[in-house]
Amino acid sequence: MIDKDIIKDILGKALSTGGDFAEVFIEDTEKSSLGLVNGKIETAVSGRDFGIGIRIFKGLRSIYAYTNDTSRESLLRTASNAALALGDVREDKAVDLVERVNTNIHPIIYVPRSVDIAKKVAKMKEAYNAAKDYSKEIAQVMSSYVDVDQRVAIANSEGLYTEDRRIRTRFAVQAIASDGKENQTGYEAPGKGMGFELFDIVDAAQCGKEAARIAVTMLHAPLCPSGKMVVAIDNGFGGVIFHEACGHSLEATAVAKGNSEFAGKLGQKIASDKVIAIDDGTLPNEWGSLNIDDEGNPTRKNVLIENGILKGYMIDKLNGRRMNMEATGSSRRQSYRFAPTSRMTNTYIAPGNDENHEIIQSMDYGLYAKKMGGGSVNPVTGEFNFAVLEGYLVKDGKIDRPVRGATLIGKGSEILTRIDMVGKELDLAAGMCGSVSGSIPTNVGQPLIRVSEITVGGRE
After folding, report:
1. Which of 16, 132, 287, 316 falls between 20 and 30 A from 105, CA-CA?
2. What angle do CA 85, 90, 94 make, to 5 degrees?
3. By C-alpha distance, which of 348, 349, 367, 457 is closest to 410?
């Protein structure tokens, strides 16, 4: 992507003022997206982004600079200017590079850019037609398609040179049901680290039908009552609560600076015995997976919590220095415009031993959150607030009726200790996660879990 001799010169220039580590991140990304509203293509965008990021460490100080001017003069000037922020010029250092070839655990069958746009549009229309035909109450249907083909090369002053290619495809459909007075929304958005073969395992029409079903069901649901309740949270995107309320607090980005409720608690009990929490970037073809992270380290299966005991954090190189701990293959960034930091990949609560029907039967009165929506969290305190996209009241061990307008309110550390039943059926769901290093693809997941008490906000 860039001549290796130039990369060596960049690294040498970056170390010219006394820095003790330098890194070059080169990115070449092609992306296309389509948007369909009410059966017609409204947006069709494609583009290519190429650039280089240069990072320098001096102890715990870090400088980051980037450019999309790939001339040798510009690259050396960018490296020099970044280095000057750390001290006076001494001399360029010599850097040798040894190439490492990574094992590709994410095979691609159909590279997206080689697939005719008409085939992509056809899948979007399948979803539209299925959603629209579900009910006369479906007032609007929107579907979208996006594929990304990212090539990266990473080199550093420790001698590493390595490359990777990441291809991802995602499809989404949103249905809005209306009775003329109120609207309710249903949403499905599967994504994988694969090409157009995504549609070999994802039925576009079924996605449209499911989005419409949620919207219509919630349109006719009464308002949810409020109060403290037993809550069962379903698998798949239900894992967003752990991701937001606990996962971010286990990233070294927060832990190293003491901005996490779990800082300094390794080896301590922070959750119920039922909880095993994992971040695994090695799952083949998953939305959040990578062969290597954005510092060039192979991704790992990192056990964060084991039977309630805090076992580890997600750590990048810089914060690893601050914590005197090894990096865990967890460093990620949106693009070359962002310095990397510790982030999640595929984060989930591992399967337990409880049957789904037993979890529901155990509830005298409570809420079954079948589908979660968006929310917010304060990583310092762990306090969160999440919307329930599709919810049902449970009475006497049986699902009673759908309810809408529910929110789950609580604190991550408290919720972890109140998980008292964990089902056997793990499912993952795709999402986008934002943090200081930009927006990146991540998976959330869990089996059906039961939380003995959560504050449920409602409007009844």
Report:
1. 316
2. 100
3. 457
Task: Specify burial of residue 114 (Cβ count, 10 A radius: 0-12, 13-18, 19+).
Answer: exposed
Element housing 349 (H / E): strand 346-349
Query: What pTM was computed for the model?
Result: 0.95
DSSP 276-326: -EEEETTSTTBTT--SB-TTSPBP-EEEEEETTEE---B--HHHHHHHT--
How far lies 3's CA from each of 73, 76, 100, 377, 430, in Å? 13, 13, 16, 44, 36
For residue 52, the one-letter residue type is I
Residue with tokens 């070999």: 200
pLDDT tens, the chain, 460 aa long: 899 999 999 999 999 999 999 999 999 999 999 999 999 999 999 999 999 999 999 999 999 999 999 999 999 999 999 999 999 988 889 999 999 999 999 999 999 999 999 999 999 999 999 999 999 999 999 999 999 999 999 999 999 999 999 999 999 999 999 999 999 999 999 999 999 999 999 999 999 999 999 999 999 999 999 999 999 999 998 999 899 889 999 999 999 999 888 999 999 999 999 999 999 999 999 999 999 999 999 999 999 999 999 999 999 999 999 999 999 999 999 999 999 999 999 999 999 999 999 999 999 999 999 999 877 777 778 788 899 999 999 999 999 999 999 999 998 889 999 999 999 999 999 999 999 999 999 999 999 999 999 999 977 5
Backbone angles phi, psi at 358, to 5 degrees: -70, -35
